[in-house]
């Protein structure tokens, strides 16, 4: 060992050895139990950030720990490499997306390797390469054949200037984020995956999941949004059609005073046609097209609408009900129409007040009688029905079922289970994504590209101007093809797939990344799946995780895999915070991981990120904390360096006759127990590192008294200390392990080094300290055997020389013993 701890030298040494000897490469030939550890793969933006450092350090600790626990660990890494930023770079920097992306991957790969992460790099996948996206296209075709991929018209955010569809996050205050043109809602033909076919299974199978954060489950349940209610038909006056609504509140049916339909609903224009309201309705629809859906449906948004001039007929009372177009109703939710009950729905209440529409109370509170004049907000709690015909006097919860039964018998409605979940729109009018493998033929219609013609390659010679739609539309070589059925001229689909498709199955591809005949090798998938521990941000709680769950179930039904859930356990780590805000370039509060690793080393960076906060909580950046972690590793290094010659002639020993050594042994076993429990229960890395630091404090205290030092016990402790440290700071641990002369390296799969074990007997102290009081005041202490009898302890206390001074010439009234704590001598 060198006298000085130099992380740059040490870390380079061990990273090179791990890589050259492929210590973390695994196959399916092992008699050990498998463990699949996975972190969400990154988008290759060019630089890793502290969020990456944190999540990948968490995953690496788990993977290394499981290896030492005797598991055969799969720990892969890859790149979620399609996406809009590459197109923006092409426009701004005149660099082709493929070149920009692959250069970034190369840079980030080196950064991750500098962190000493235990990845099997032979399994690396890159989603923008044909050997990966070929299978995206294969899945698309299979889903199309099963009726799970289809095309329909849908409203999208549209920038008229850029001539492109925008994601919600690209719309800023109603304008295009790039050119600041007002965004409108435009109806386009879009491809969808029928995730709704799995809505009930996605919901029910939450009970099959292992350790998932409760808030993730809740978010998914809310997103799926199962509702049990009634579907009710409201005939239109003078027309054959009816407005069908879904409601979870059939108990309020008698309180309907108007109907609201979405501006996107085709009925909006149809109902006002040839009426004095036609121009007002048309202008309102155009106005709403410019509004962001999330904004217009928020609770705080103003309620706006226009009367269509048409009326619906109440199915039970026969009364005429005006039909309005309202901004807060969306076509994709329910049926795109709602029955408005202003007395018992707050949005309807606010709308009614604004447009002076009637409010009819049909549920009364047991504590207060409401009327239209006394109601200051919608009454939404349970109560008793009133003004509801034959249902008067029935509790509202009971009335839901009774009114629904009545509607069903009368043929005016039906019991209905509805879901908030909508099918997954996968069309993107962009270039840098997987080409959708569909062809349009005038003779044969929509045709899937045959399997033997996949992949449909993404052309690399397209121009980027920043204006217009997808460059694929301008590429005649790409867009013009022949129909696979009749061989006549046809047009290729120029939309590309949502990049969530890439991340919905990448964890499956890791099990057989080089398979050319299958997207997933069935035998290898059966060995490794499901993922035992998944680690990633809470921001992916819904879309990514829900889509991955859907994809897994769909591929199971296609016979590709046999599992129905992809991730057994999920850990969602918190963000990295600095100066009270999430780290970002715009806030100027970022910490460069390269600088951190160059200055302090990867082990310090890892240790700090693991120690500063529990993994599920946000981590508040602290420069002093980084310095503290570095000082700790320096102290550890110095102790091992100071005693390195002693190790060569000393055998490790877990036995000693000296009290001081037994204290150290007991602390060692307690620390092994504590850290093992922290790792097994909820990955409390912060308290595990704290326990390591406590143990080392005991070590430094022990070696400060060389006269009582037992070399065998010290080596036993420091040997176990290194193993406990190794998942957290693997480079220094390997170097210290080598200095001990132990067989290794620690993570050499041929050595099969094990995680330390503790002895329950060694956890129990063989001696204890008893406080001695005289008349309630501390006067001395006594060390006695842990199993000493009460009378023996009392006699020893009375015989103590210090105590004799305080009771001399006094009458001892009584001696009180508090078990294993104190002796109190009462003397007068």
Your description of this structure?
The protein is of the alpha+beta class and 828 residues long. Helices cover 37% and strands 19% of the residues. It is built from 28 helices and 34 strands. The strands form eleven sheets. The protein has a four-stranded parallel β-sheet, with helices on one face. Helix 2 (50-68) crosses helix 20 (602-611), helix 20 (602-611) crosses helix 21 and helix 25 packs antiparallel against helix 26. It starts with 6 loop residues before the first helix and ends with a strand. 41% of the residues are buried. The mean pLDDT is 93.
Low-confidence spans? none
* Percentage of β-strand residues: 15-25%
Q: How many strand elements?
A: 34
Tell me the strand order in the biggest sheet: 2-1-26-27
Terminal CA distance reads 64 Å
In angstroms, what is the radius of gyration? 35 Å
The percent of residues in helical segments reads 25-40%
Question: How would you summarize the topology of this molecule?
Answer:
Blueprint: H1 7-20, E1 34-39, H2 50-68, E2 72-74, E3 78-79, H3 84-93, H4 97-114, E4 125-126, H5 130-145, E5 149-159, E6 164-166, E7 171-172, E8 175-176, E9 184-193, H6 199-204, H7 214-224, E10 226-235, E11 242-247, E12 258-261, H8 266-272, H9 278-289, H10 293-296, E13 305-313, E14 320-326, E15 337-340, H11 346-355, E16 363-364, E17 384-385, H12 396-409, E18 413-419, E19 424-425, E20 427-428, E21 438-441, E22 445-448, H13 471-474, H14 476-479, E23 480-482, E24 489-492, E25 496-497, H15 500-503, H16 506-509, H17 522-528, E26 533-537, H18 543-557, E27 570-573, E28 576-578, E29 581-582, H19 593-600, H20 602-611, E30 619-620, H21 623-642, H22 644-648, H23 659-681, H24 685-703, H25 711-725, H26 730-739, E31 767-774, E32 777-785, H27 790-799, H28 801-807, E33 812-818, E34 822-827
Parallel strand pairs: 1-2, 1-26, 3-4, 12-14, 26-27, 28-30, 31-34
Antiparallel strand pairs: 5-6, 5-9, 7-8, 9-19, 10-11, 10-18, 12-15, 13-14, 16-17, 20-25, 21-22, 21-24, 23-24, 28-29, 31-32, 33-34
Helix pairs in contact: 1-26, 2-20, 3-4, 8-9, 19-20, 20-21, 23-24, 23-25, 24-25, 25-26
């Amino acid at each position: 060992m060198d006298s000085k701890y130099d992380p740059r030298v040490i870390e380079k040494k061990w990273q090179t050895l791990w890589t050259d000897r492929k210590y973390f490469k695994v196959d399916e030939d092992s008699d050990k139990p498998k463990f699949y550890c996975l972190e969400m793969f990154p988008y290759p933006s060019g630089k890793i950030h502290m969020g990456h450092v944190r999540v990948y350090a968490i995953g690496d600790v788990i993977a290394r720990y499981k290896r030492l626990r005797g598991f055969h660990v799969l720990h892969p890494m890859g790149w979620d490499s399609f996406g809009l930023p590459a197109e923006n770079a092409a426009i701004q920097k005149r660099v082709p997306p493929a070149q920009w992306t692959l250069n970034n991957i190369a840079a980030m790969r080196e950064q991750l390797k500098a962190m000493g992460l235990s990845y099997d790099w032979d399994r690396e996948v890159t989603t923008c390469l044909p050997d990966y996206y070929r299978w995206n296209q294969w899945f698309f075709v299979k889903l199309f054949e099963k009726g799970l991929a289809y095309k329909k018209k849908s409203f999208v955010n549209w920038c008229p200037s850029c001539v492109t569809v925008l994601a919600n996050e690209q719309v800023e205050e109603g304008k295009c984020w790039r050119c600041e043109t007002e965004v409108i809602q435009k109806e386009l033909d879009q491809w969808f995956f029928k995730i709704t076919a799995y809505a009930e299974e996605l919901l029910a199978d939450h009970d099959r999941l292992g350790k998932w954060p409760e808030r993730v489950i809740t978010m998914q349940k809310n997103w799926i949004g199962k509702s049990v209610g009634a579907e009710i038909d409201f005939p239109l006056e003078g027309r054959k059609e009816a407005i069908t609504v879904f409601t979870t509140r059939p108990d309020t049916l008698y309180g309907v005073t108007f109907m609201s339909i979405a501006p996107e609903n085709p009925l909006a224009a149809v109902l006002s046609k040839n009426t004095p309201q036609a121009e007002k309705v048309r202008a309102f629809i155009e106005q709403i097209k410019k509004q962001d859906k999330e904004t217009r449906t928020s609770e705080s948004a103003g309620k706006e609408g226009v009367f269509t001039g048409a009326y619906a007929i109440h199915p039970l009372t026969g009364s005429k009900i005006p039909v309005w177009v309202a901004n807060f109703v969306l076509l994709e939710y329910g049926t795109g129409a709602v029955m408005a009950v202003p007395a018992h729905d707050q949005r309807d209440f606010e709308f009614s007040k604004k447009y002076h529409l009637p409010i009819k109370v049909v549920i009364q509170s047991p504590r207060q009688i409401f009327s239209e004049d006394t109601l200051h907000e919608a009454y939404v709690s349970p109560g008793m029905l009133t003004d509801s015909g034959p249902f008067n006097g029935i509790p509202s919860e009971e009335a839901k079922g009774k009114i629904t039964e009545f509607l069903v018998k009368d043929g005016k409605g039906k019991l209905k289970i509805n879901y908030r979940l909508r099918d997954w729109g996968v069309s993107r009018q962009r270039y840098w994504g997987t080409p959708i493998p569909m062809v349009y033929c005038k003779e044969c219609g929509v045709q899937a590209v045959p399997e033997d013609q996949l992949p449909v390659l993404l052309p690399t010679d397209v121009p980027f101007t920043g204006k217009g739609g997808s460059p694929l539309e301008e590429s005649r070589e790409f867009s013009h093809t022949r129909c696979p059925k009749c061989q006549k001229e046809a047009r290729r689909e120029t939309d590309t797939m949502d990049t969530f498709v890439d991340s919905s199955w990448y964890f499956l591809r890791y099990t057989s990344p080089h398979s050319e005949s299958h997207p997933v090798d069935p035998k290898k998938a059966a060995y490794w799946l499901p993922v035992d521990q998944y680690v990633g941000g809470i921001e992916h709680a819904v879309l990514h995780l829900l889509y991955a769950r859907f994809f897994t179930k769909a591929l199971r039904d296609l016979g590709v895999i046999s599992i129905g859930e992809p991730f057994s356990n999920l850990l969602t780590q918190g963000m990295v915070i600095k100066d009270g805000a999430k780290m970002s370039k715009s806030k100027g509060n970022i910490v460069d991981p390269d600088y951190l690793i160059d200055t302090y080393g990867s082990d310090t960076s890892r240790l700090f990120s693991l120690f500063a906060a529990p993994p599920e909580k946000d981590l508040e950046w602290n420069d002093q904390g980084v310095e503290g972690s570095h000082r700790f590793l320096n102290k550890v290094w110095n102790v091992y360096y100071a005693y390195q010659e002693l190790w060569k002639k000393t055998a490790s020993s877990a036995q000693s006759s000296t009290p001081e050594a037994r204290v150290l042994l007991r602390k060692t076993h307690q620390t092994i127990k504590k850290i093992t429990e922290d790792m097994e229960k909820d990955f409390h890395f912060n308290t595990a590192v704290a326990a390591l630091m406590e143990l080392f404090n005991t070590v430094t205290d022990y070696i400060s008294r060389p006269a009582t030092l037992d070399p065998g016990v010290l080596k036993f402790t420091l040997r176990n200390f290194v193993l406990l440290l190794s998942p957290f700071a693997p480079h220094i641990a390997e170097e210290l392990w080598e200095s001990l002369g132990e067989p290794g390296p620690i993570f050499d799969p041929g050595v099969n080094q094990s995680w330390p074990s503790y002895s329950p007997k060694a956890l129990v102290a063989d001696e204890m300290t008893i406080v001695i009081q005289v008349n309630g005041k501390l006067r001395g202490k006594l060390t006695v055997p842990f199993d000493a009898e009460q009378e023996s302890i009392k006699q020893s206390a009375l015989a103590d020389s210090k105590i004799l001074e305080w009771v001399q010439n006094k009458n001892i009234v009584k001696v009180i013993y508090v078990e294993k704590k104190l002796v109190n001598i009462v003397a007068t």
